[in-house]
Design goal:
8 helices; 20% strand; 217 residues; Rossmann fold; seven-stranded mixed beta sheet
Length: 217
């Protein structure tokens, strides 16, 4: 078998055998996020959080950018993996949701590593210096905006740096020809764009909701 159904029990087992297990700060953050109702589904899982920390450490990231912060769990995971003196720029438009994250970052002792900008993400990334000095990017925001974020961020990522994009398989709808909604259509176009981009080497994981991992050449 090349794959199997990943149940909550299997996911919990995997997380329990990883290095970075959820601590009281993370649990409080998850509980507060769950209280939001349906939007809570936008939060990454513990397994994906572990991977974000690992990838951040693997590239020795000192400068990272996140597009789409929600309640700050993915930000916390990236910030934990940053090298000494590193910083994470977070882009979001919701003061309400990111306030939850800010409390968690402070409780985790990570607030000094995170720079939150409450303004349209495209405006924020376009204002960044043109220098290719970003080590890691995580895109997890509005799906029709993915291509524009990619266009702005790829030139600003150093050789050997990583660009990650979440939800690229969209619960399997990406391969369903009957699915023609705006998000699915935008993600198909984005995936085609990344696959043809010779500036990067790319792998699409069939884990989580689909995660693109692209390494800048």
């Amino acid at each position: 078998m090349r794959s199997f159904a990943v149940t909550d029990e299997i996911r919990s087992y995997a997380v329990a055998h990883g290095t970075w297990r959820p601590d009281p700060v993370v649990r409080r953050l998850q509980e507060e996020t769950a209280g939001l109702g349906d939007p809570a589904g936008m939060q990454v899982g513990d397994d994906q959080g572990q991977l974000l920390t690992m990838l951040t450490r693997l590239v020795g990231a000192r400068r990272a950018v996140e597009v789409g912060t929600f309640t700050g769990y993915s930000s916390l995971c990236i910030a934990r993996g940053l090298a000494e003196g590193g910083s994470l720029l977070c882009c979001d438009i919701s003061p309400e949701w990111t306030e939850i994250g800010q409390r968690a970052w402070a409780a985790a002792g990570l607030a000094d590593r995170i720079d939150l900008r409450i303004t349209p993400a495209l405006d924020t990334v376009r204002a960044l210096p043109d220098t290719a000095d970003i080590d890691l990017v995580f895109i997890d925001a509005d799906k029709p905006g993915y291509a524009a974020y990619w266009a702005e961020l790829v030139p600003r990522v150093r050789s050997g740096g990583l660009l990650l994009a979440d939800n690229v398989l969209w619960s399997g709808r990406i391969a369903d020809p009957e699915a023609t909604d705006a998000n699915t259509t935008a993600l198909r176009a984005f995936n085609d764009l990344v696959a043809s981009d010779e500036r990067v080497e790319t792998v699409v994981l069939t884990a989580f909701d689909g995660l693109t991992i692209a390494r800048r050449r």
